[in-house]
């Protein structure tokens, strides 16, 4: 029975060593905490203080300088952009005026051509009217000369 009891104690001890990892994990945790606090703690603290100082410096000096420079350059860029926009509008107006001028010139040329065609047509019509008038004058003059001859026949009475 003693052996059995010893065997049970050994089995319990073996079981606790195989299945119960709490003492090992706790030892690792203690080692990690000690390592972090002793060796890395000061280094991490210095690193965090340096980062904090850099952030404070950036907030106090760098960001305002950058903001001021950005506003100045944006104002200059906006001024140049407005000038370029104004120039583009002037160029656009000149192009429109030139286009209207060419349209006006083309319209004037077309009106001249229409006027010349109209005048030629009027000249042709005038010549036709003059010719008809000349024929009518010729007919009337022959008619009146015939009447004059007839009158001369009756004149001796």
Automatic annotation (TrEMBL):
Database matches in InterPro entries: Bloc1s5
PANTHER family associated with the record: BIOGENESIS OF LYSOSOME-RELATED ORGANELLES COMPLEX 1 SUBUNIT 5 (PTHR31784:SF2)
Family: Belongs to the BLOC1S5 family.
Protein name (record): Biogenesis of lysosome-related organelles complex 1 subunit 5
Species, as recorded: Polyodon spathula
């Amino acid at each position: 029975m003693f052996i059995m009891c010893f065997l049970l104690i050994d089995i319990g001890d073996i079981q606790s060593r195989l299945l119960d990892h709490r003492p090992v994990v706790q030892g690792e945790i203690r080692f990690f905490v000690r390592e972090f606090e002793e060796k890395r703690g000061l280094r991490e603290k210095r690193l965090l203080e340096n980062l904090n100082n850099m952030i404070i410096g950036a907030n106090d000096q760098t960001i305002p300088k950058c903001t001021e420079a950005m506003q100045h350059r944006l104002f200059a860029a906006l001024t140049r952009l407005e000038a370029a926009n104004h120039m583009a509008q002037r160029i656009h107006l000149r192009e429109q005026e030139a286009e209207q001028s060419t349209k006006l010139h083309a319209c004037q040329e077309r009106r001249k051509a229409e006027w010349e065609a109209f005048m030629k047509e009027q000249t042709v019509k005038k010549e036709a009217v003059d010719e008809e008038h000349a024929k009518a004058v010729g007919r009337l003059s022959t008619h009146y000369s015939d009447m004059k001859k007839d009158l001369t026949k009756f004149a001796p009475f």
